[in-house]
Design a protein that fits this description.
Order of helices and strands: EEHEHHEHEHEHEEEHEHEEEHEH
CATH architecture of the largest domain: Alpha-Beta Complex
Number of domains: 2
Number of helices: 10
Structural class: alpha/beta
Number of strands: 14
CATH class of the largest domain: Alpha Beta
Bound molecules: adenosine monophosphate, magnesium ion
Radius of gyration: 19 Å
């Protein structure tokens, strides 16, 4: 098995594809950073198949984290916990915390069980590119650089996991995702969104990097009426129907479909030589908050 040999393996999850290696094998984890061109101060998420793995990864797990685990594991939620001494500092980028997630995807679970060890894994894309939501996107970015791609369907959620920091006085959402702020607050009412200026910088160094950005310019619009001078090199994605239709467009039937197809749409638009991608803004609730976060990052309008 590739993991036992110290190699990296790309695998499907319900959020995006991950690029994994044995969390305790520093040489293997280094290969992830090399393949992606990922800066070393951007920590990785540790993926687990069983709760029992937490004992080796984290220590003094707060009660609130246990509540979130009970409610949302397995699923698209990552918890930041106090790190145990067994997790190499390359994984946490020198932080004294560790991010842990238990994916619900059947192939991810089978892979983790077969590996028999916790797996450190960021998204399986070149650093700075939109996360890979299909095995084809993984191949496009990492072919020749990694040993194995486990092929699965396109990622059903399509946006990265919600990241909640459980090391402070109140749980703080460092990254929005499919588990919404409202769902977290139903478990722990004081859960809050981190203020990116105050908290995210020291707490989550990776968040400072431009993520999710296609090569084309992303233009956020509140209404399709704002699309002007559309050319054959313009694209549109959103819930409403633009009139006249654009040469390259995707009309989504729901917020979930919009989220699921966003990153693959960005990649397809780049491949088609599109110069401008118009993206319709959505209300900031439920997964709409995560979608708007990725749209703002892609348009650099933070
Ligand atoms: P990716 O899987 O590529 O989305 O990258 C994982 C992201 O998880 C990083 O960019 C960080 O923002 C976040 N993360 C991982 N470990 C930690 C940690 N110990 N503290 C805070 N955020 C973390
Ligand atoms: Mg990533």
């Amino acid at each position: 098995m590739f993991i036992a040999k110290g190699e990296c393996v790309a695998f499907p999850t319900e959020t995006v594809y991950g690029l994994g290696a044995n969390v305790f094998d520093v040489t293997a984890v280094k290969k992830i950073f090399e393949a992606k061109g990922r800066p070393s101060d951007n920590p990785l998420i540790v993926h687990i198949a069983h709760d029992s793995e937490l004992a080796l990864l984290a220590q003094r797990i707060p009660d609130v984290a246990h509540e979130f685990i009970q409610k949302f594991f397995p699923g698209p939620l990552t918890l930041v916990l106090p790190k145990s001494k067994f997790v190499p500092s390359i994984v946490s980028a020198g932080l004294n915390s560790v991010a842990v997630r238990m994916p619900s995807h059947s192939v991810a679970q089978a892979f983790l069980r077969a590996a028999g060890v916790s797996i450190a894994a960021p998204s399986a894309n070149l650093s700075g590119k939109p996360s890979a939501t299909s095995w084809r996107a993984v191949k496009e970015d990492l072919d020749g650089k990694i040993s194995c791609i486990l092929k699965g369907d396109d990622s059903p959620i399509g946006l990265e996991s919600t990241v909640v920091d459980c090391t402070g006085k109140v749980p703080l959402v460092l990254r929005t995702g499919a588990i919404s702020l409202e769902q977290l607050q139903a478990v722990h009412a004081r859960t809050a969104l981190a203020n990116p200026k105050k908290t995210a910088a020291p707490k989550s160094p990776g968040m400072k990097y431009t993520h999710y950005a296609p090569t084309a310019t992303v233009v956020l619009i509140d209404s399709v009426d704002e699309i002007r001078r559309a050319t054959k090199k313009s694209a549109y994605i959103g819930l409403s129907m633009p009139s006249p239709a654009l040469h390259f467009q995707k009309i989504c039937m729901s917020l979930e479909e919009y989220a699921q197809s966003l990153f693959s749409f960005f990649r397809d638009a780049d491949a088609a030589g599109v110069t401008h991608i118009y993206c319709e803004c959505v209300p900031e609730q439920g997964i709409g908050r995560a979608l708007m976060d990725r749209l703002r990052k892609a348009s650099s309008r933070l």
